[in-house]
Amino acid sequence: MSSKSFALNQLSETAYASVRVPDNGLDKELIRTNNRKLEAFAIKVAWAFASIVVLLVIMSLLLVVAGFAGSRVTLH
To answer: What are phi and psi of 24, to 5 degrees?
Structure first.
């Protein structure tokens, strides 16, 4: 059984070596944008979108409540 295991390990190492890409050290760097203004703009856009969604939900709830309250009132 150990000879089969050795052959399998050697085969997988050979396959890995044929696919391996040379390491130039760039993969260890954290990839970030260098422009802080761009990051701040993206965050502001996200906050604006979330705020608009929350306001629309609140307005919808108020309209539903006002609709129910208005349907209860009888005008003579």
So the answer is: -110, 5
CA distance linking residue 24 with residue 58, whole number of Å: 53
Question: Can you tell me the mean pLDDT for 45-50?
Answer: 97
Q: Enter the pTM of the model.
A: 0.48
Cβ 39 vs Cβ 33: under 8 Å: yes
Phi-psi region of 33 (alpha: psi -120 to 50; beta: other; left: phi over 0): beta
What's the rounded Cα separation, in Å, for the pair 17 and 13? Answer: 6
Question: Scanning the structure block, which residue is given the tokens 């705020």?
Answer: 51
